[in-house]
Specification:
alpha/beta; eight-stranded mixed beta sheet; 315 residues
Length: 315
């Protein structure tokens, strides 16, 4: 069977797409692909200047690229609400919401709203964003929510620790990252269950990029480690990782492939899912735990004060 590549993507003219973290890495390469196929991409970025640089690079390659920048800080619930207000004022449809942005293994810090930064940004931020945009998604036939997780979600116990999601007991940066990525999956699957209950054509799917060379691993100012550790990471990216363009393929497949269904999990098809072309796979058993998903959903609504009123309520 032929491997799926960007060439398999359909025409996206007339489609409106939001990509969080669109100015670099997986988000940047996904944005490049979407605009090359004619889609209009809203770059949701904390750093507008970096987003503008990304747009310049994209338009140098694709002069006809249709783009728009709206500031978004996923670590600030007010910024998320403001983003949604601006978007819905300007657009009546939303075909694809790509929940891609994230932080990884950073020193302990809190979001503006007092959440542990990785859980607050990677999960709660995207939970709130999706909630604010849900009416527009539901009003757009066959829209999709694509949540980018990581296969790191199944490290350690593979279980979510509800008593330590905000670092209440202790903070281990890699454990916190793992919890946030597992939370992404619990959210994506529970969202699909709720969408199915109301018979919506909107679907929720998840994906992971494998081991891809992006600045998430070593370039961010928040990453800990000596110069030697950073050098090791750069060498690993050079010799072991696949390109960010390859890493973006699972996101693109999840977003546009005809055979994708709600609750699908897309990742690379190579050894240990570290690299390769996209295919359907499975996340760990804990990610499909409906009781945990419902508990996380209720907790997320309480923390963010964002409720998905058009969907069945979790009890």
């Amino acid at each position: 069977m032929a491997k799926w590549t960007m060439e398999n993507m359909p025409d996206l003219i007339g489609k409106i797409i939001i990509v969080t973290g669109a100015n670099s890495g997986i988000g940047f390469d996904a944005t490049r692909a979407f605009v090359q196929k004619g889609g209009h991409v809203v770059l949701a970025s904390r750093n507008v200047q970096k987003a503008e640089t990304a747009v310049s690079q994209i338009k140098a390659e694709t002069p006809t690229a249709s783009t728009e920048i709206i500031p978004l800080n996923l670590a600030d619930l007010t910024s998320i609400k403001n983003f949604a207000t601006i978007f819905t004022t300007n657009h009546a449809q939303l075909d694809l919401l790509i929940n891609n942005a994230g932080v990884m293994a950073i020193p302990y810090r809190q979001t503006i709203n007092g959440f542990e930064m990785q859980f607050g940004t990677n999960h709660l931020g995207h939970f709130a964003l999706t909630g604010h945009l849900l009416p527009t998604l539901l009003n757009t036939a066959n829209s999709r929510v694509v949540t980018v997780s990581s296969n790191y979600h199944n490290r350690g116990t593979g279980q979510i620790d509800f008593d330590n999601l905000n670092g209440e007991k202790e903070y281990k940066k890699w454990d916190a990252y793992m919890y946030s990525k597992l939370a992404n999956l619990l959210f994506a699957y529970e969202l699909q269950r709720k969408l199915s209950t109301i018979g919506s054509s909107t679907i929720s799917v998840a994906c992971h990029p494998g081991y891809s060379a992006t600045n998430l691993q070593y370039a961010g100012p928040d990453m800990e480690g000596s110069g030697v550790q950073r050098l090791i990471m750069r060498l690993m990216n050079t010799f072991l990782a696949q390109s960010s363009a390859m890493g973006a393929l699972p996101t693109l497949y999840a977003a546009v492939a005809d055979d994708v269904n709600g609750c699908d999990y897309i990742g690379p098809d190579g050894m240990m899912q570290m690299r390769g072309h996209p295919h359907k796979t499975h996340s760990n058993e804990a990610s499909y735990n409906e009781a945990d998903a419902q508990k996380l959903w209720t907790l997320s609504e309480e923390l963010t004060k964002v409720t998905f009123d058009l969907l069945p309520q979790t009890h």
